[in-house]
From TrEMBL:
This is DEHA2G15488p. It comes from Debaryomyces hansenii (strain ATCC 36239 / CBS 767 / BCRC 21394 / JCM 1990 / NBRC 0083 / IGC 2968) (Yeast).
Amino acid sequence: MLSILRNTRLHGHSSRCLKLTVPLVTSKRCISDRNSSLDQNKIVDLLLKSSKMEPTKQNHTNIEDFNKNFVIHDTVELPDISNPKIPFPSIQFKDYDIADMENLGRLYMKYVTVKYVFDTRPHIRFNEAFNYTDTLLECASMAFDSRKSSFLEYIGQFCIADISKCNQYIEGFFMEDAKSSQLIESFSTYFLKITPRFKRDMVDYNLIWDSAVPNSTIELPSLEYAKHVFNPFLLVDSSNLKKFMSSSMFDGTQENTLVGDKLLDLQNYGKLMFEFYTVKHLFQKLDISNPLFIDIVKNLDSIFEDVISFSALTNVIKCPQYSPIIKDIRTKSNFNEIFYQYLGILDLNNKIVENSVEKWVGRLVDYLIANSSENEINFAIKFDSPSLSSPKYKKQKNLPVVPCLKMSESMSDKAFPHGYADSTMLDELKELGKSCISLAFKHYLVVNSLHETEYEKYKYEKEFIEVVGRHVNDSIKVKSITPDEFSNSDIPFTSDQFLGLYLIEDFEGCMSFLDQFFAGDYNPSNFEASASYIKHLAFQINTPIIRMAGSITSKDSSPLSLPPLSDNSRTTRFLLLNNAVINPSFGTYKNRNWKRNNSMKNSLHLWHSWGSLLYKVSIRHALISKSSQVSSPYIQELFKLLTSNNFCKYILDDSNNFNIIENTDYERLLMERRYTNSLINAQFSQYLATVQMSNSKTIKEWTSSFVELFISLIENLNSEEVIHLINTFTEKFKMHKFSLCQSFATNIIKNIEEERIVIDLPSINELNNEDFAPSEEMGKAFLSYSIASFNIHYGLDSFINSKIDTMDMIEVVVKTKPIKELLRSKSIYQYIGLLVDQKGNTEAQRVTYNFLGQILNSKAKPLNFSKIPNLNLNINDKVIGGSDFFVWGNAIQFPKIHNDALHKLLLVNFYVSRTFFQITRNHVGNIHELPDLCTKFNTIGGEFYKYSVLKHAYTYSSSGTLRLPEAILEKSIKLLMDRVFMSIVCYKSGILYDPFNHTDYSKLAKKAMKNNYFFLRFSSQSFRQYMGSLCYHDIDIADRWVNSIVNTLLDELSNASNIQKQHQILNDLESKMQKYYVQKRI
């Protein structure tokens, strides 16, 4: 890799070297008595390795072929050299070998000369500038008069001691006249002139200017003024130069050998510069006899490809023809050229951060030394673990002083519109205070990238909250820090309320106070460690570099639109990867697949949690600080509205946020999770956290602005009008059509219309139009049931959302021409209703599942029975209160089915399930999974029962010799669907109060049915869960039981001689149901 230049003897005096006045040099030397461990020639050979600095071939480029629209200043000759204006400064010599320093000094002089020439005369070739060093060395050596050291040793010591001053001093040798000064232009500007004009929209500039946080150790420094100096040819090797020139990135093709010549010059300069910086830093860190010194010198180039990939340089160019070029470069292991070219332009261009490239090379060498073991360097990029393994906070000593809280008059009026601290406001302040402690803690975790398990985070957070609360409470007891509004309050003033008030009065001051509880040099605005961690993690698991949309704000966006994201850096892009699309890792997926990686998921979840809490704290803070006598009673209702999942979904769509990332595979992942609430929460919260990282005031100001808007809407309304307005907003956000669902439906419709999806709906017999009405209602009920059972494998939130969206989607899909032709003027509900009537339940379900699978692009998946525990409970077969009821006799009882694990589980009513599973210790994993399963089967059972009642009622009425009057039929259906009837069935079947003969369950059930409303809610839940289990295990058994219930009642009605007697039968049934309800309700 390295090729320190061999000794060059100085022969004669150059004509460019003017006579110099030699200043007196007073150098101090601190040299040990040791001799050099290696002679000069061995050192040179060691540092040269095999890759010598090859002389560049003579440039035969024809100037006539250049772009005629600019002037190449090739008339500017190399500068003359004169006596510097100041004498050689005195420096403190360190204990380095003389020969080592002379070699370093020679290398430095070559580097600084070429850099100066390239900075001022970019048209000059590398060899000419390189050889010009001899002239500078000759003249400088003549000027240097010291018997204590040679000039080269002095310069070697000088550049180690202070390279900035050394640069300034050496550059003082060069003379510029008025003409040359006027013609000077930068290398970047010159290089852009000689290369073809490129399409700037094909360059992802944000990847080369990471503005959010400083670049990490391995990542190359940012290219300053990237949009003005970047040139795509910097990222192409010589073998692919011609092919790249002919790509679609350029407006026209151009055969220009000068481009190749200057790239070669840049490579040579970058290599020379990198060699110097590396050796200089190695001398500062290691003795030359250390084996690590030799290992780094020989093998450092083996890390270049990883550095380029880690820095995302291969993703900067968006031209489609660039991908095969990068593949070719990787195949040929030819990244060295790109590395030196890019590093060279960084060193020539970057001025804002002084010596940024030198500092980066130093960090790279330190990184390799730190990762060494037993005198061997591991050149693989290692995972950059967080410096802290657990949160560090003060517990007893050096705790921050609790300030005396004095509220301003204006803030007091808003927080206490009634002039005193009422209980409602105290509760709000308490919640705000507790939340701000947790917010400070989560912020600390994010900054230090501490994403332990949820249990670990909860344990530390709980202790931190206790430490803060105890300290503040102790201060309240001994100091007069209570605001006047609380002086006459009978309610004790707590630490949470104090912090809530403190946050209202001084948001930044309160958070700063909480930050002082953390030990060490904690800086809440420094996200460097966290950003570095996630970039290392993303590199390790091959996370793709995603593209960002130029602007995500739509033209018709509302005042609720998300604040703009000012930073599109690589760090930001990783942080915006929705946590919900990443699955936990299992087995071999752990370290190689970003879609299945626990570390990535946990890290993004931490940002998600911080962003979520930040938003809630900001909303509550704004609601309290903006409140008035009118709005303060509705703080809880407004908080619930503004933090709801539906509101967040509306804001995301209003801001076009799901289009912020341009990546087809990633969009597909979002589509797959479109029904999950976690997708919405993660998208919303991670975005806010990322914005907060760039600007700590943006989220607070944004939430304050739209909270003020909502409060202004209710200022002049009475109580009833306020509640109506809040309910109207709630319904609006609930009914909002989610963009991802609409996009998915659009894609499916397009595929159907283009016949890329062929819908299969078998033909059925036609019926008279008068038969379509009952078929429509029956078909809609069966479709609703089928959708619920088709999506049973979803999580609860997806299960609920998918049912609504699928019904809406079907309404649109069936309007496509291919499906309309299959339906033959029938609606999809009429078709399914007739299908059920003619083909039966099993065949109808098969056809419906196939149809759903085609339009949803998925398959019905069975339940995972491994997650269902086998409850160690005995089913109670004893029926209390007899089994007969009205006309049904024993038929009123549910049929018995196989008592497997699922059926036992569904006998546990949802409303007591969590507590009961905890008591019996029958929950495994997530305690919500089993109750969620009860809820899903409640939906399936209810939908099936509704469908089956309608089917058998309409079938009976249409097939009988004498049809029942419509009013009689409708009332019969209504009574059979009534929740009181459902409770009777449960009671007569022995599953209402105690399906297991278990004392704890019986107590919980009676407690859950504490009044009329809860009695019916509990009863209907038990009925639907049992019916769900029944139709899931055997749909025909379930259907026959419903048929028996319906037909028994309708037979009784048909036997009545007239409609009056039929009404009397139904009235008797309703009366008996009401009597039971009055007797059995708790």
